[in-house]
Amino acid sequence: MLPNTTASSSLHPFSPSLKQNSSFTFIPPFQSFFLATILASINNHSNTNFQFPHNRMEVFSSTEDENWSMVERNETQLLTNNSPFIIHGFNTYWLMVFAVDKSTQHKISDVFAEAKSAGLNTCRTWAFNDGQWRALQISPYNYDEEVFKGLDFVVSEARRHKIRLILCLCNNWEDYGGKSQYVKWAKELGLDLNSDDDFFCDETIKDYYKSFVKAVLMRVNTITNIAYKDDPTILAWELINEPRCPSDPSGDILQAWIEEMAAHIKCIDPVHLVGVGLEGFYGPSTPELVELNPNEYCGTDGTDFIRNHMVEGIDFASAHIYSDVWLDHSNEEDHLKFVQTWMDSHITHSKDLLNKPIIFSEFGVSLKDERFCSDFRHSFMDTVYETFTQRDEIGGGVIMWQLFPEGADHMDDGYAVVLAKFPGTCDLLASHSKRLCGNM
Asked: Is-catalytic flag, 362?
């Protein structure tokens, strides 16, 4: 069952979870001039006298620095310093781009500080921008040092606030370039390519991606002087946000790509965790489970929750939760039941079939969808947290889409959570932080 126009008419325009109603594919609305307008607007609202500490690492004491160790995996659990680590996180995808401009850098510090105050401990964000305005990867093998310094700032500020990072390395969608930009670059060389799905199988494009990944992993932070591959601030690398390969419903092409790229990362950085970035749809390897997908199309998009996560170099499973996008009705009780069933099934299968932790790395409800209100979003979020907390036999965590600092709500796509604007949500996060994470 595919979403109708009502279900898809008010989706978050920056999120790669946008789908069209007929083909369930992404609508690419992101334009460089729009983000430039956002930045200009933020500049007008910014305190130009904002000052950073001369040594951003000074907030860390030597004892704290010694205890800031890598997050590791032991079967279905995540650990740090041999103690359980549960992810209670947030998405804020735009940090690197904002960090390039000195006048908007403070938004990175603001969002980390607000997240920490609410008990959040992990941020998932983009470590890529391919061929766009303020691109990190200007073209294959050509990277912008100033944008890299912006990413350095993001990593250093996360470390200063004791926030872990999950860094995503590419996008399935056109936002920030993604796989379509890689294909454009290859076509400019005269390669005969048929679709954006050639990203997953063309050798030239795979070399572009591998070279970019190596540049990021080997990067030495200009602020902390720590190589990314050695920095415990980075919890995990994510291969690609929401990969799909609908030209190959068998899933073989995407499976081979995941195996190759996971091995590539592990060869350079055997220490950090690696995830795929999947939405969590069940595929051909488990035909008895495809009925759990929100609609029939999801089982034919070339992804496979079980098979893809069985890859040796993949350390944890991931899934997203967007009932407002995936379901074509507005019955709130049914939405919450779907959330519970979706989560329970993925938790069970991650434990019993994969023997790996599960991270629900995106979930949210758009308040621009007039079918839903802030009270329902509160119930939705509470259901996500309660469902995960009750299944304490497995590790991993939950990461909401998405947290915005105060003063940036003018760019709200409907999914933004501005804690100052919704104190009840702040209380909810703080309460579940105690239950999920204890005093960690």
From this structure: yes
